[in-house]
């Protein structure tokens, strides 16, 4: 049972979080292995091409979902008419966008001076249809806290598509191995969830329901367009100003920290939205849960980012081989920018949960104006990849304060309180990162032994410091794990 008296059971939320984390971890682990294999078999220019293709696909996916996915999750009541209406609308939007990409592909290829973009963009755009279906399936899963099904679906789809993609890369298909790996991953994800998630679209459609949901979702749509447009602007600029291989190095540099962020912070925030939405009339409870989310995210993410910065070179040399060494500085800079994510996402999730998508939109406009300005300065005055990467860090610092501002009034969570919640983990992570870096400088051993020593040093240093400092997040996580798994009182 998920709800008692309209309140979400804490153990159910935490177990859902565990399943969501397992889903993200398993999916990302398999994807990580697949990407490593593909990176060893393919060239940086191949990855540059797929990174550019995904810019257009990711932007189009925002239109396909149109903010309805989050609106369905956030709504207090959502029935079959709501889900079916959004389903058919999403498929219609996907069809329009596919046709647009099909006919615009030649112009896009000419603009970026990459003839092979024509066919590859027309083929990879098939993903939009699967994305339309999967967005509704994910909304069902989130509302019902059935993340166990999502775990099996994601892991299965990535394993199958990764195997096929790896075989194609080994057989010499080049960039097509990446294209079909992306398509098949979405296809099998939809297919498996069709079996594991007992939801089917009905022959129902209500324009009125769509309008009602869109009254909340349109602000999220615009916000997502701004966010995706800004995030992908870096890839577009690099693809236009530099070589495809440069874009390949840039995208691979982001891969490692993105895996961590996707697993941990993404899992926490996916659970937090439906959970907080159930408490949207109780600001004190939202604040309490949000503080736990920020503290836990920071406690786990910050040391991982610090450790990754310190071990970047041996990590890349071992995992991707020396041909990918130019991606090391991009990886380190991206780790710095991702340090702010626990505060970013937790604040934005709380704003969405209380139904203030209007504030969410205003924040996105302000942040993107700042971000685009900083990016433009980096492009015009520096014209270097490193400067473009650093622009994301500067805009991220500004965004941290902007995102946190509304929650001072909405739920009474001030700047000082948020800073106090993340500062212990931040300080311990810096100390740990310095220790790991020193080990890398003084250890005169093989690259494999060096990375192992750095990892062991990082784990022991951070764990010891957390125990000595009596960090609350560590004690909280330990107690929840014991109560949820050892006692085994609850199940999803």
UniProtKB/TrEMBL annotation:
It is a multi-pass membrane protein. Its main location: membrane. InterPro entries: Poly_Biosynth_Transport. Pfam families: Polysacc_synt_3. Keywords: Cell membrane, Membrane, Transmembrane, Transmembrane helix. PANTHER family: LIPOPOLYSACCHARIDE BIOSYNTHESIS PROTEIN WZXC, PST FAMILY PREDICTED COLANIC ACID TRANSPORTER. It comes from Cloacibacillus porcorum. The chain crosses the membrane at residues 47-64, 85-112, 118-138, 150-173, 293-311, 323-344, 426-445, 451-469. This is Lipopolysaccharide biosynthesis protein. One of its GO terms (cellular component) is plasma membrane. It is found in: Cell membrane.
């Amino acid at each position: 049972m998920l709800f008692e008296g309209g309140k979400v059971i804490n153990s159910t939320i935490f177990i859902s979080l565990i399943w969501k984390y397992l889903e993200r971890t398993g999916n990302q682990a398999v994807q990580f292995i697949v990407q490593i294999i593909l990176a060893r078999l393919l060239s940086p220019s191949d990855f540059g091409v797929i990174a550019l293709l995904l810019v257009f696909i990711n932007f189009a996916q925002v239109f396909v979902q149109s903010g309805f996915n989050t609106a369905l999750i956030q709504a207090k009541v959502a029935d079959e008419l709501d889900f079916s209406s959004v389903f058919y609308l999403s498929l219609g939007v996907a069809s329009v966008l596919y046709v647009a990409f099909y006919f615009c592909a030649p112009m896009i290829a000419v603009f970026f001076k990459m003839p092979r973009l024509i066919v590859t963009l027309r083929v990879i755009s098939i993903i939009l249809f699967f994305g339309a279906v999967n967005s509704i399936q994910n909304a069902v899963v989130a509302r019902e806290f059935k993340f166990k099904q999502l775990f099996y679906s994601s892991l299965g789809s990535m394993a199958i598509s990764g195997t096929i993609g790896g075989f194609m890369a080994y057989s010499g298909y080049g960039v097509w191995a990446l294209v079909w790996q992306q398509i098949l991953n979405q296809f099998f994800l939809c297919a498996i969830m069709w079996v594991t998630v007992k939801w089917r679209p009905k022959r129902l459609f209500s324009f009125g329901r769509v309008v009602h949901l869109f009254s909340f979702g349109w602000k999220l749509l615009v916000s997502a367009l701004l966010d995706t447009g800004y995030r992908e602007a870096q890839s577009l600029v690099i693809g236009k100003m530099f070589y495809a291989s440069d874009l390949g190095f840039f995208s691979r540099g982001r891969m490692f920290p993105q895996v961590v962020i996707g697993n941990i912070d993404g899992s926490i925030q996916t659970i937090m939205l439906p959970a907080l939405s159930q408490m949207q009339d109780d600001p004190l409870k939202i604040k309490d849960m949000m503080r736990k989310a920020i503290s836990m995210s920071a406690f786990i993410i910050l040391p991982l980012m610090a450790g990754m910065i310190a071990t970047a070179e041996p990590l890349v040399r071992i995992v991707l081989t020396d041909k990918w060494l130019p991606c090391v500085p991009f990886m380190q800079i991206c780790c710095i920018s991702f340090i702010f994510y626990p505060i970013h996402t937790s604040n934005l999730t709380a704003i969405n949960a209380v139904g203030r998508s209007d504030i969410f939109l205003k924040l996105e406009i302000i942040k993107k104006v700042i971000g685009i300005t900083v990016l433009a300065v980096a492009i015009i005055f520096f014209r270097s990849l490193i400067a473009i990467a650093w622009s994301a860090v500067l805009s991220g610092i500004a965004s941290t304060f902007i995102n946190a501002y509304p929650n001072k009034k909405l739920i009474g969570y001030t700047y000082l309180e948020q800073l106090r919640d993340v500062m212990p983990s931040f300080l311990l992570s810096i100390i740990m990162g310095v220790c790991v870096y020193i080990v890398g400088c003084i250890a005169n051993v093989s690259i494999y032994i060096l990375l192992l020593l750095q990892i062991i040093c990082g784990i022991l240093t951070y764990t010891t410091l957390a125990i000595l400092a009596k960090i609350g997040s560590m004690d909280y996580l330990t107690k929840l794990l014991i109560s949820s798994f050892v006692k085994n009182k609850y199940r999803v």
